Amino acid sequence: MAFLMIRQIKAALKQGHALNNRVLYNAYSSTQTFKYEDIQIELSKNLKPKPDPDKLTFGKSFTDHMLTIAWSEQNGWDKPQIQPFGNLSLHPAASVLHYALELFEGMKAYRGVDNKIRLFRPMSNMDRMYNSSVRCSLPPFDKEELLKCLSKLVSVDKEWVPYSTTSTLYIRPTYISTEPTLGVASPGHALLFVILGPVGPYFPTGAFNPVTLYADTENVRAWKGGVGDCKMGSNYGPTIMPQKAAAAKGCQQVLWLYGEEHLLTEVGTMNIFVSWHNEQGEKELITPPLDGTILPGVTRKSLLDLARSWNEFKVTERTLSMKQFKKALSENRIHEMFGAGTACVVCPVNKILYHGEWMDIPCTIDDTSLTKRFFTELTDIQYGRVPSDWVQEVD
What is the value of pTM for the model shown? Predict the structure, then answer.
């Protein structure tokens, strides 16, 4: 039944229909899924000590429990299980190991100033994860049921959510093929699991410190017709070598370019924004459009929504080439440049190395900057200082 749905979606795509939530829902509505009401919980008997929230690094500490939900073509979805955190057992031929049939999400739980635990726009992550699973030919799932199960896991490990407004609990939903055969085909076995871990600032330099970029003219992160708009591990592994090369040149992140025009696309693992005065003299915030090469970031969407609600300057999703950027920089029309993503929220940029030339980017990180304003407004929502329907409380 599940793969009948995937064939329906692929047929819709061949006929030119957009891959939107309605198409997905119509195809999905007749399939089975796991249910939150069936969740089984086994609590760990060996609880780990919790790390100092002021000494956390990113992605190296994990909580006491994890969520696992197995699927097979023969039996469908198993019951969701919250169990003690532990290793997975995989067949050596599992296609995730050979053909990278996997995807993941990145979310956070925040302990607010009122001690309530909140998730930030979590259904946007579920939507993106669902779309990635379709592209990866993994079986469909009910997004709302997964969110309920995930929220229960956070509730079970709620004492791992740092009592801090600078640290958070990182949530990593992951979906892999466990098909134990060496054929390149849609899998008959899969595993959806969620792990949690308390995290501090993403960059070693700390939160909200400017970064330097290497504008890479040789390597490409994504291309049209590819999977740059999906959160798959196959988009990230190949970026490690260029990142090491950038570090050797004295840069902290890669500025990914695309095509002969060297279009700006992303910064490291972040979406990119530029605040400037355009050639018509208008103050404008621009970010690359979702053309298939750009990940539809939740933070990206939130910054666009905030900026449009302010109605103080033009907000545009369009391409920007390095030629246009350099010209604007030489004419003092660039105001700020920053990356945006779940891990860092927003991150200002102060230098770019392009064709062997260092370019100094205007970078003011005090309260007058747009970057700081975005950072403050988003974190105020996430930590409960400002009420918002963008957050969902965890019981």
Answer: 0.91
